[in-house]
Design brief:
316 residues; alpha+beta; Cathepsin B, Chain A; 2 domains; 3-stranded mixed sheet
């Protein structure tokens, strides 16, 4: 899929790329594969080249790739945030030729008809699709990650630190403070999630499957809502140049309004940035969940002058 997307990008002159992904679930692809292969009297658990070809064919039967070049008036900062510098600048809206790449999943019933599934195969498909088996499929697809409490979620946890960010060479351990903080906020909010267990590792893997990062590793916030529909990015507030009291009051105001907040604490300059998840605000202190330390007091750990901005999400 990534190779075909890259071929499209290199063959069409464009200014920007938006990938709109409604990609087929791996669970459905693997169930189709299991039913199809077992009916052909082949065992399912081991892979040879023939079985890889069968699975590859199912993947492309379940995913339709298309594209369109559209002139659009856009504002870059409405779409992505830079994970390396986390700078948020204001740009004038300009016209760009935007290459829209669409990944659309096929109707699974039509695919079953294409494969001429008989009543027994359909019954097997329904059994494997039953919700009682979701935890098994999630274990197979996302890997086995423990259900540790969110206060222990660190970007360098060996369970997920090596998970790559999108198609980049970087991983969670290197530039994953923002996505780890957002995963903490999602878990803290209590919103429903279809990923079990849910943690920074499974969250990034789900983002990768939904093309939630661009080629530089910038997070595309719209992808978060595809994974967790009730958790929605609303915007950011710049705190540079404000006094400590003004920063405290601004963060407190959005916290009191019920938003989930991630705060940048190192100035968001080149090679100096870090994000933490807001936990609570008292009359004197701001407490946090820090992806890189066990400290909980925001401005005892980080100089308040370097608190540059925060992003906020609705979970209601």
């Amino acid at each position: 899929m990534n190779n075909k997307i890259q071929q499209i990008k290199t063959s069409i002159l464009h200014d920007d790329v938006v990938i709109e992904s409604d990609k087929a679930e791996w669970k459905d692809i693997l169930i189709l594969y299991s039913v199809k292969v077992s009916e052909d009297n082949l065992e399912v658990l081991t892979l040879d080249q023939n079985k890889k070809d069968i699975m590859r064919g199912i993947f492309w039967d379940m995913n339709i790739l298309s594209y369109q070049l559209i002139p659009e008036k856009i504002n870059d900062t409405d779409r992505i945030e830079n994970l390396e510098t986390n700078t948020s600048s204001n740009y004038d809206s300009i016209i760009k030729n935007v290459l829209h790449i669409y990944i659309k999943k096929s109707n699974i019933d039509e695919v079953k008809k294409k494969y001429n599934f008989n009543d027994m195969q359909i019954s097997r498909f329904e059994e494997l699709s039953n919700e009682k088996n979701n935890y098994l499929w999630n274990s197979a697809i996302y890997g086995v990650y423990s259900d540790s409490p969110l206060e222990f979620w660190k970007q360098t946890d060996p369970q997920w630190s090596s998970v790559k960010i999108g198609t980049t060479s970087k991983n969670i351990g290197e530039i994953g403070c923002l996505v780890t903080s957002i995963a903490i906020l999602i878990e803290k909010s209590g919103v429903p999630k279809d990923i079990h267990p849910f943690n920074p590792g499974t969250f990034v893997l789900a983002l990768n499957n939904n093309y939630g990062f661009d080629e530089q590793g910038n997070l595309i916030y719209a992808a978060i809502t595809k994974i967790v529909p009730n958790f929605k990015f609303q915007g950011f507030r710049v705190l540079r140049g404000k006094t400590k009291t003004e920063k405290y009051d601004e963060i407190k105001k959005y916290n009191n309004w019920g938003y989930s907040i991630a705060i940048e604490v190192k100035g968001a300059t080149s090679n100096s940035q870090h994000w933490v998840a807001l936990n609570n605000i008292t009359e004197k202190d701001i407490t946090m969940y820090d992806p890189s330390s066990n400290e909980v007091n925001l401005w005892e750990k980080y100089n308040w002058e370097n608190t540059s901005q925060f992003i906020f999400f609705t979970n209601f």
